Amino acid sequence: MLHERGRLKLTAPFETWLLEATAPGVVEILPLATSVILELNRLPETFHGDPADRIIVSTARAFETALATHDRKIRQSRLVQLWKPAS
Q1: Are 66 and 81 in contact (CB under 8 A)?
Q2: H-type helices in 1-87, by residue range?
Q3: pTM, to two decimals
Q4: What values do phi and psi take at 62, rounded to 5?
């Protein structure tokens, strides 16, 4: 996990942080629906070798929602709309 590798700094123990970060009103948890699998199949084979990142992008595409990410490969791919904070 990123926090174990020191790539993500958490403000609380992982379990506490995860429960707070996924609370209703903070984020919406989307299901791994058939539409996500279809989008996963439509991604170019050359896009991202990380299966989790492929599923994340496919989910954003299937649900037509913007994605907030710092992942360089995802941002450069232009395969998904990127979230931008309101100005």
Answers
A1: yes
A2: 14-21, 34-42, 51-62, 72-77
A3: 0.77
A4: -65, -40
Residues in the chain: 87
Q: Tell me which amino acid residue 32 is.
A: L
Residues 6 or more apart in contact with residue 40 via CB below 8 angstroms: 54, 55, 58
**pLDDT for residue 72:** 93
From the first residue on, what is the mean pLDDT of each consecutive set of 10 residues in the chain (87 residues)? 80 93 88 95 92 95 94 94 88
Q: Give 3-state DSSP helix, strand, coil % of the chain, rounded to 5.
A: 40, 0, 55
DSSP state of 2: T
